């Protein structure tokens, strides 16, 4: 039998720490969104190429 425990903590950051936390999460969110945009941009031509090949195969039959 597996027993799972969880601990819950409450943090009370100072104003300076709170500002740093907000900056860190804001930067992380920005970077994540930029990388997601780059990934979508890189995948889009591949998807279009597959669709074009499928249509041309249908024409050949």
Structure annotation, total helices: 1
Helix content: over 70%
Give start-end ranges of low-pLDDT stretches: none
User: What profile does the largest beta sheet have?
Assistant: none
Whole-number tally of structural domains: 1
Hey, roughly how much beta strand do the residues contain?
A: under 5%
Shape: elongated
The pLDDT mean sits at 83
- Helix and strand sequence: H
Please tally the β strands and state the result.
0
How large, in whole angstroms, is the Cα Rg? 24 Å
Please report the distance between the alpha carbons of the first and last residues. 59 Å
The structural class is: mainly alpha
Structure, described:
The chain is elongated. The N and C termini lie far apart (59 Å). With 61 residues, it is mainly α. The model has no long low-confidence stretch (mean pLDDT 83). The protein has one helix spanning 15-60. It has one domain (15-61).
Task: Characterize this entry briefly.
By secondary structure, the chain is mostly helical.
List the helices and strands and how they pair.
Layout: H1 15-60
